[in-house]
Amino acid sequence: MRDPYTVLGVSKSASEADIKSAYRRLAKAYHPDHNADDPRAKERFAEVGTAYEILGDKEKRAQYDRGEIDADGRPRAHAFSGAGGFDPFSGFGGGGGRAAGAGGGRSRTYRYSSGAGPDIDDILRDFMGGFGGGRGAGTGAGAGPGAGAERTWKSPGEPGRDAEATVTVSLEQIVSGEKARVELPTGKTVAITIPPGVTSGQQVRLRGQGFPNPTGSVAGDALVTIKIAPHPLFTPAGSDLKLDLPVTLYEAVLGDKVRAPTLEGAVELTIPSGTSGGKMLRLRGKGLTKSGGGRGDLLVTLRIALPDSADGDLEDLMRRWRKHSPYDPRSDLK
């Protein structure tokens, strides 16, 4: 692969913010979904992702700048010469073998696997360890730059990093089934289906919508957190909705039909005569979608509202009522 700085079009002194900005711009420009007619776009998209895997990680960027890993994130090979050179295949043909190590003639014993030769992982671990490329590197005079550093490259089949994002949805969107559009940190914008029975803070996983791995072959997932926007009228209570509905004194006393708002428009609500303030009426199926199917209810609590301005006739009526028909609504509290 090309130099990651060249791929992203940034200098070696570029800040983390500059690198991230360049990646987002290029990833969006070359995303396959936006370039269905350009077969090279997928290659460029993978190349941009691999470059960001290196430069977007402080440790990997430092390793690349020191020459410890190449543009694909793999440790660079080291050249050997002289009589003390490393011969990983000396000792083939038996149950175990010895090879000269990087420490000036030092020999190591390696395991043989399935009778075909020494365990390659064993050899590479020791080989890279003596020259600062992997686990087990020494810290003495024979240790090279970056001694003790862990291997950071991934296998071709291992997915890239997950991407995290948050989207805010309205109660109307939940009920209507309208999809929510969310911009991912990969630079891609996707439309997600809001799951039935969703609660604020619930997370949805989008398979393969995360960051690609260094080879661009497998992407991680996108984890989208859903937040429910506050509503000026309705309050969620599980799959139900709560609504406070003001009514007049005469509507409560005499009974009436009034218009009550729902998420899908106003409906007619019957108020029984002699209704007390605080009474709850239930509108079935006017709540939120349930995870198992169907919808919850709209729970309407009636709140008796008096006129904003003083009304002498109403006050006179209440005085006569208090005198001739007194009652105690708090008798149950005594």
UniProtKB/TrEMBL annotation:
CDD domains recorded: DnaJ (cd06257), DnaJ_C (cd10747)
Domain of life assignment: Bacteria
Protein name in the entry: DnaJ-class molecular chaperone
Xref: PROSITE patterns: DNAJ_1, DNAJ_2
A Gene Ontology BP annotation from the UniProt entry: protein refolding
Domain J residue range list: 3-68
GO cellular component, as recorded: cytoplasm
Listed InterPro entries: DnaJ_C, DnaJ_domain, DnaJ_domain_CS, HSP40/DnaJ_pept-bd, J_dom_sf
Region Disordered, residue ranges: 136-163
Pfam family, one: DnaJ
Biased composition (Gly residues): 136-147
MF annotations from Gene Ontology: unfolded protein binding
Keywords: Chaperone
